[in-house]
Amino acid sequence: MQYTGSQYFGEYVRGRMEGKALYILPTETKYQGEMTDGMFHGKGTLHFPNGSQYDATWEKGKIIQGKYTFADGLMYKEDKWLYCDGYDRRFYTEICEGLKPAGISQVTNIDPPRKIPEGCYDCGDGFYDPKTRVIRDYRKRFLRNAEVYVICLRLTPAIG
């Protein structure tokens, strides 16, 4: 271990790593699982520093079968892979959170967006109609009259 920079926490049989173990590589990738004769053997998981993991069945250091899970919880599937392909570049979490793909505008997080009448302006709790100078809620119920603020500058002649 002193030459490779790895760490091993587990049992030894005849001087070889064997049994349930934790093996930490110098890259901070961790293997937690079964070892035989100093090799990954049986069920074990590689935990990567980025939060992803690879659960696998090993035989004398070689993978027999396994599945990769990204840090966000998405499991990799070789067939029918639907994420970040040539048509839809969104990541799994973006799809789960409702982010629209490129080319489909999304002005707010509200989906579908609120309908604002033509010529009116969204003001957070409703919409403002400049013709009537009234603010109505999104169900078109009266909220309040819009106030007009006039800023007057008072010019005074210079005394001198």
Automatic annotation (TrEMBL):
The keyword Repeat applies. GO terms for cellular component: motile cilium. Its main location: other. Pfam families: MORN. SUPFAM superfamilies: Histone H3 K4-specific methyltransferase SET7/9 N-terminal domain. SMART domains: MORN. Keywords: Cell projection, Cilium, Flagellum, Repeat. It comes from the Eukaryota. It is found in: Cell projection, Cilium, Flagellum. PANTHER family: MORN REPEAT-CONTAINING PROTEIN 5. This is MORN repeat-containing protein 5. It comes from Sarcophilus harrisii. The gene is MORN5.
